[in-house]
């Protein structure tokens, strides 16, 4: 079973192309994390919010990454981190075309 990690926090920028340029090395490094499958980067410049939706192979991998990532972004001066780990209902996700394959696929 795979697990979703949702993380968001207040951030004063950068956003858009500037964020992509400044964080491309970080994005590449995330690919090397144990149990990591994919990440969707999220941002809302109007509300000064950013974060991501991640998919991990196991709950333990998601928890390990969250611990490390929380320490990393705290070192950037970011506080008030909101994070949650969710199980996936693969049958309903499949029906709604979610990017997650069930064992039956």
Largest β sheet strand count, sense and barrel closure: 4 strands, antiparallel
Indicate the structural class: alpha+beta
**Treating each run of at least 4 consecutive H or I residues as one helix, how many helices?**
4
Order of SSEs: EHHEEHEH
- Proportion of helical residues: 25-40%
Overall shape? globular
**Total of domains:** 1
- Chain-averaged pLDDT: 90
CATH-defined topology = Alpha-Beta Plaits
Distance between the termini: 14 Å
- Strands, total number: 4
Stretches where pLDDT falls below 50 for ≥5 residues? none
Level-1 CATH class name: Alpha Beta
The name of the CATH architecture is 2-Layer Sandwich
Within the largest sheet, what's the order of strands? 2-3-1-4
Write the layout of secondary structure elements.
Elements: E1 3-10, H1 16-22, H2 24-30, E2 36-44, E3 49-56, H3 59-75, E4 82-87, H4 90-95
Antiparallel strand pairs: 1-3, 1-4, 2-3
